[in-house]
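Let us practice reading a record.
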Amino acid sequence: MIAIIDYGVGNLGSVFNMFKRIGAKAIITSDVKEIQKADKILLPGVGAFDTAMAKLNESNLIPVIKEAVFSNKKPILGICLGMQLLTQRSDEGALAGLGWIEAETLSFQKVIKERIPHMGWNTITIKNENLMTKGFDEESKFYFVHSYYVSTKNIENKMFGAKYDINFDAGIFQDNIFGVQFHPEKSHKFGMKLFDNFNKL
């Protein structure tokens, strides 16, 4: 079972429906016992970095999620802002991120001339192969909506790359921790494939 974390931020319904479409068992929850029972965890996120981190801190769920990920080695997938929360910090706010991957979240506005936010379909490249990249190639497209991008410190933490004037990390990973900047739940067959890969971990 996949526990979709409900901490007051994210497109929970559409994520749940996508898992339902591929036949994966998922639950939207903020219940500690349900999270502990789950095989995998999905961390959604839409909106501002500090708001999301504040809500996550207020939920008191970080210790139980951390135990599941680090002690019990359960896979976790952060999507969109949920991926950014896995980093150490963000230009968007003052609060510290979870810091589970050596990376930071930076502002597009400082470095590109393109329209912000980066919105729409974009192709990806695979930087490091793993079970989450299975079945994807340079023709794979995902739907993005974001004004901030992630930059990892170490090459080995890069999973997917994308380009919007500059190259940025569209997917990151470390051991059982995964994150994607795009919205799988809005990415049709490619998003279904990504969720299926996660379900099969």
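A brief commentary: The chain has six helices and twelve strands.
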